[in-house]
Amino acid sequence: MQIISVLTALAAFKFAAALPSGPETGIVTHVTTDEIPAVFKVSNETDITARDVEKRASFGVYLCANAPWKEPCQHITSQSNQCIKLDSALAGQVSSIGPDQGAYCRFFFSDNCVDNNGCEHFDLTSPGYSDLSLLGPSCNGKYPNDRVRSYFCVQA
Predict the structure, then answer these.
(1) Would you state the pLDDT for residue 18?
(2) Could you give the CA distance from residue 67 to residue 86 in angstroms, rounded to a whole number?
(3) Within a 10 A sphere around the Cβ of 146, how many other Cβ atoms?
(4) Residue 85 CB coordination number (10 Å)
(5) Which pLDDT belongs to residue 60?
(6) What is the pLDDT of residue 2?
(7) What is the DSSP letter of 38?
(8) What is the rounded CA–CA span in Å between residue 113 and residue 148?
(9) pLDDT digits (tens, 9 = 90+) for 117-150
């Protein structure tokens, strides 16, 4: 009887030793770092931050206070549909506007991307206008030159 118990225990041990130590993984293929697609490679935290910033800052607009494209100028980047309020260097003073390629932007004559009557904005895509004084008036008879105070952009 003891022999049967010992043989059963040995058989059970042999069977248990033959089992894989972890979950079934299928075929394992070893690759070199050169074979890993770039999208999966991250060398350090700075790479992640740079990619995240690039995704968030997907639309840019070049604005100048003087036409054509004369300083002071700023290139401002933003997320899609994010209202940008211009700082004191440009608010109410913009004469040249150039959205980056791929952006469709709405420029407002108010500080917070608000148009209460439907006539306090105008829309632009790339390449924009080098001299807003050459644009006609909006529906309320106001010309856009030196009136832009805020804007937002979306994918064109």
Answers:
(1) 47
(2) 17
(3) 15
(4) 13
(5) 95
(6) 52
(7) G
(8) 10
(9) 989 999 999 999 999 999 988 887 889 999 999 9
Q: Tally Cβ neighbours within 10 Å of residue 41.
A: 9
List, in order of start, the domains of the chain with CATH numbers: 56-155 (2.60.20.10)
What predicted TM-score, i.e. pTM, was given to this entire model?
0.63
**Half-sphere exposure (CA, 13 Å, Cβ side) for 71?**
0
Cα–Cα–Cα angle for 121, 113, 132, rounded to 5 degrees: 35
pLDDT band at 81 (very low <50, low <70, confident <90, very high): very high
Assess contact for 77 and 57: CB atoms under 8 A.
yes
Burial class (CB in 10 A: 0-12, 13-18, 19+), 131: middle
* Residues shown for the chain: 156
Cα–chain-centroid distance for residue 135? 30
The tokens 């040995």 sit on which residue?
Answer: 10
Task: Yes or no: say if 107 and 151 are a contact pair by the CB < 8 Å rule.
Answer: yes
Higher pLDDT, 18 or 69: 69
For residue 23, whether the previous peptide bond is cis, meaning omega lies within 30 degrees of 0, is no
Tell me which residue has tokens 């804007």.
151
